[in-house]
Specification:
This protein is of the alpha+beta class. It folds into four domains: 73 residues; 100 residues, PH-domain like (Roll); 212 residues, no CATH class; 138 residues, no CATH class. It has 22 helices and twelve strands. The protein has an eight-stranded mixed beta sheet. The chain has a two-stranded antiparallel sheet with strand order 9-10. It starts with a helix and ends with a strand. One of its GO terms (cellular component) is exocyst.
């Protein structure tokens, strides 16, 4: 490196180097841009050289870096081992200290109890009595002999879901139960609290809640399937509650165990010798009781294991343990010990059943579809509760379907809404049926309940359907399309052997009948209004396009011979009233056939008959009253169109749609035979 470079390096490395002063002096001393460029190049060269030297040093000391990292790793593992050893030693020392303290404590308590046995018990009961005098609604608490106060204090209860404070309570811990009392806002004399709940020590578990500021100093009490959260005044009080609760529960368990062990018969019972040769030997149960081995470790720990499984929501594991016990005791005689074990297990079965029932309740989340209920349903069936499982499963699915229908947004277009409604309902019904068939495959007795539930669900669907289609006074064509969509979706259920078409029709028959009669009245009123303004003139459609359009419309209505009533120009040899009536009646017939099912046969038939009679009677009246021969001939031509063209098409189309001929329509056509005109008279003869 040159001498200039060394000088520059020393200057930059000096501890008193000031960049601003250096740049200021450099700008004053330089003669122009060239000097600044040269100085910049020198600094850049120095930087490149420094970077190069740094790389060389890294490569040179690379092995040392690796070795140092290994040494650090070794040191870290040794520190972990040392920490583990210290922790073990600490725990050992604490256990030894605790054992010594408990021994001294037991000896002291025994001495105190021996010295003052009655006084201590009486003082505890007197203290509890004085405290309970401040609580409203606890008159029978002291009826249990030997009950005394262990600990008490103020707590704040929080909501389990949103962790918001609910109320201030006072807790009384006794040797066999826990009393929760709420503060009275308006105190009455010495009474400060009101009774809220009383829990047996064996019916709940205490769980420490981790501090999460501002939520701290809390603990939870679990009573399956419910729970409550309380907050202590500070961490010290919380620790005392947890320790005393745990110690009191242990003392109660120990006391109950000693009590059972000390229970012995007061006097031996001498067996009576029977001379009856048909009596059963009474020695067999005693021998059998000795043969039932309940000392196995898994049997002894079974009640506690069931509690753990229920708390951890391991329903399958709990039922597996119950099945294992039932299999073990299947061929064993029923002894006193077996009955005691059964009583303990039955209590856990009741708790497990309550949890599973809560899992299937409609108050729980309904997301996930029918498959989300499979776990709880299968375990209830394994517990022999198939009827209850079936009932809860169907209630859950009914609530889910009802919620889905309620959340469906009502669209402006009725047909679009009905498409969405049918898709949601029938898809849910199909999924529920498949899940039901899978879950209750071995319980054929539950299928009748599913059929009843399906009908009730269909009734709920029809209520929503009718409210949107019929109550909103939609047109008959829209109602017919909506009913057609519902029928098509209902047919999908036949793939699983469930046919609810008849149920759907029976629920819709009232609304469809009302819609047909309402639309019939509209057509009759419109026909009468046109009849009142009838001039009996030929139609002039003005343009060939309009004539072609009318021909297409009449052809779509089934009037194939309509062209014989049209001329070369844009004239039609029929009146506007007859043409409009024909189109409206044929439209009513087509929509009525879409809505048709056997219960509506007479309704549709009578509606058609009434509509046709209005037109026929008007033509007959016009023929009798008209005096102009030309107009009479024109009216005659319209009457012939009705009798020879329109009525046969109506009969044929009705027979095609229904599957059998309409005798009433045939009789109507025969009674309205073509009209003859007497040329020498102004009267018409029918």
């Amino acid at each position: 490196m040159s001498e200039t470079g060394n000088r520059l390096r020393k200057l930059l490395e000096s501890p008193n180097f000031d960049p601003q002063n250096y740049v200021k002096q450099l700008s004053q001393q330089s003669d122009g841009d060239r000097d600044l460029q040269e100085h910049r190049q020198k600094i850049q060269n120095l930087a490149d050289e420094t970077a190069q030297n740094l790389k060389k040093n890294v490569y040179k000391n690379y092995r040392q870096f690796i070795e140092t990292a290994k040494e650090i790793s070794y040191l870290e593992s040794e520190m972990y081992q040392l920490s583990h050893i210290l922790t073990e030693q600490k725990s050992i020392m604490e256990s030894i200290t605790q054992a010594l303290l408990s021994t001294d404590k037991d000896e002291t308590s025994k001495e105190m109890q021996a010295a003052f046995p009655k006084e201590t018990e009486e003082v505890k009961q007197r203290t509890l009595t004085s405290l309970l005098e401040k609580v409203e609604g606890v008159k029978n608490i002291m009826d249990t002999p030997g009950r005394h106060l262990v600990y008490n204090g103020d707590l704040v209860e929080f909501d389990v879901d949103n962790m918001s404070p609910i109320q201030k309570v006072h807790a009384f811990l006794m040797n066999d139960c826990l009393l929760i009392a709420t503060w009275l806002p308006n105190r009455r004399g010495a009474v400060k609290y009101k009774y809220n709940a009383l829990y047996d020590l064996e019916s709940f578990a205490v769980v420490n809640v981790k501090d999460n500021p501002p939520m701290k100093d809390m603990f939870k009490i679990l009573m399956f399937p419910d729970s409550r959260i309380f907050q202590a005044e500070n961490s010290k009080v919380k620790k005392e509650w947890l320790e005393i609760l745990d110690e009191t529960k242990k003392n109660k368990v120990t006391k109950d165990r000693h009590k059972k062990e000390e229970e012995v018969p007061t006097s031996p019972v001498r067996a009576e010798v029977s001379t009856n040769p048909f009596d059963v030997d009474d020695d067999e149960p005693a021998d059998a009781e000795e043969n039932v081995d309940l000392s196995l470790e898994w049997i002894q720990e079974l009640p506690e294991d069931l509690d753990v499984c229920i708390a951890q929501r391991d329903f399958e594991g709990a039922v597996d343990l119950l099945d294992k016990l039932n299999e073990y005791l299947k061929d064993q005689p029923v002894t006193q010990k077996v009955k005691e074990l059964r009583s303990k297990v039955d209590e856990r079965v009741r708790q497990l059943t309550e949890v599973l029932v809560f899992e299937l309740s409609p108050d729980r989340s309904l997301r996930g579809g029918p498959k989300a209920t499979r776990r709880a349903v299968s375990q209830l069936i394994r517990l022999g509760q198939s009827t209850k499982a079936c009932e809860l499963f169907l209630k859950n699915r009914a609530a889910a379907v009802q919620t889905a229908i309620r959340q469906l947004r009502i669209e402006g277009a009725t047909l679009l809404y009905i498409h969405k409604l049918c898709n949601i309902f029938f898809t849910s019904l199909l999924e529920t049926a498949k899940e039901f068939e899978m879950d209750f495959a071995g319980n054929t007795g539950c299928y009748s309940a599913f059929v009843v539930w399906s009908k009730s669900a269909m009734r709920m669907f029809v209520d929503a359907f009718s409210k949107q289609v019929f109550d909103s006074k939609e047109s008959l064509s829209t109602a017919a399309e909506c009913v057609k969509v519902a029928k098509e979706h209902c047919q999908q259920l036949t793939e699983i052997g469930l046919d609810l078409t008849f149920t759907l029709q029976s629920l819709l028959v009232k609304d469809i009948r009302a819609a047909l009669q309402s639309y019939k009245d509209i057509i009759i009123e419109a026909t009468k209004h046109r009849n009142s303004e009838e001039m009996w003139r030929r139609m002039n459609l003005m343009t060939p396009e309009a004539l072609v359009k009318l021909k297409d419309e009449m052809r779509s209505c089934g009037m194939g011979s309509f062209e014989q009533y049209t001329g070369d120009d844009c004239w039609v040899n029929l009146s506007y009233t007859i043409v409009a009536f024909t189109k409206q009646m044929m439209s009513f017939l087509e929509e009525g056939l879409k809505l048709y099912f056997p219960e509506l046969h007479m309704v549709l038939l009578e509606s058609l008959r009434e509509i046709i009679l209005v037109a026929v009677q008007h033509v007959d009246y016009s023929l009798r009253c008209e005096q102009d021969p030309e107009k009479k001939a024109f009216i005659m031509q319209n009457a012939s169109f009705l009798h020879d063209t329109v009525l046969p098409v109506v009969e044929r189309r009705f027979e095609e749609g229904v599957g059998k001929p309409a005798k009433q329509l045939q009789d109507l056509r025969k009674s309205t035979r073509p009209v003859r005109i007497n040329p020498e008279s102004t009267t018409s003869v029918v």
